Amino acid sequence: MKYTIREMTAQEYPLLDDFLYEAIFVPEGVEPPSKSIITAPELQIYVKDFGTSKDDFSLVAEVENKIIGAVWVRIMNDYGHIDDKTPSLAISLYKKYRGQGIGSSLIKEMLSLLQVHGYKHVSLSVQKANYAAKLYQKIGFRIIKEIGDEWIMTYNL
């Protein structure tokens, strides 16, 4: 599939709400939560006022001029927080575009962008049962902490 990766524009930041919802891991056979779940404070931290901090970066993947995925980072006290110098990463793609290498490309582009901006690490939190956990490990993220059914992972830039 032909796709392009580019920086997300400020006018597109409202799309992060959709991608935040898409990023929620729903195990097989479990009913997805209501979309209103993204209004919870522990999830709003990923998107509220995005673009107002020098540590907010976002990239999108496009297919035929339609945004089909996003990866974004910011320094925040989220599930994957390790310190106040390390951005936390979030990524999601619409379901029909998963498993085609687009997510890997988005992450790798973001890692390059963060390296250019002088960051030393990036972190994330992922449920162990999430298929994406294997993707992160394949890219080079390391598990640094286990909390219940989740891992906190980091990548050294």
Verbal overview:
- By secondary structure, the protein is α+β, with helices and mostly antiparallel strands.
- It has one domain (4-156): Gcn5-related N-acetyltransferase (GNAT) (Aminopeptidase, 3-Layer(aba) Sandwich).
- The chain is 22% helix and 29% strand.
- It has 4 helices and 7 strands; from the N terminus they run βααβββαβαββ.
- The strands form 2 sheets. Strands 1-2-3-4 form a 4-stranded antiparallel sheet, with helices on both faces.
- β2 and β3 form a beta hairpin.
- It is globular, with a radius of gyration of 15 Å.
- The mean pLDDT is 96.
- This is GNAT family N-acetyltransferase.
- Residues 3-157 form the N-acetyltransferase domain.
Shape: globular
> How helical, in percent, are the residues?
10-25%
Distance between the termini: 28 Å
**Strands, total number:** 7
In round numbers, the mean pLDDT is: 96
Helix count, DSSP H or I runs of 4 or more residues? 4
The CATH superfamily is known as Gcn5-related N-acetyltransferase (GNAT)
Give the percentage of residues in beta strands.
25-35%
Structural class: alpha+beta
- Supply the CATH architecture: 3-Layer(aba) Sandwich
Which ranges are low-confidence, i.e. pLDDT below 50, for 5 or more consecutive residues? none
Total individual domains: 1
Sequence of strands across the biggest β-sheet:
1-2-3-4
Tell me about the biggest sheet? 4 strands, antiparallel
Provide the succession of SSEs. EHHEEEHEHEE
CATH class: Alpha Beta
- Give the radius of gyration: 15 Å
Q: In CATH terms, what is the fold-level topology?
A: Aminopeptidase
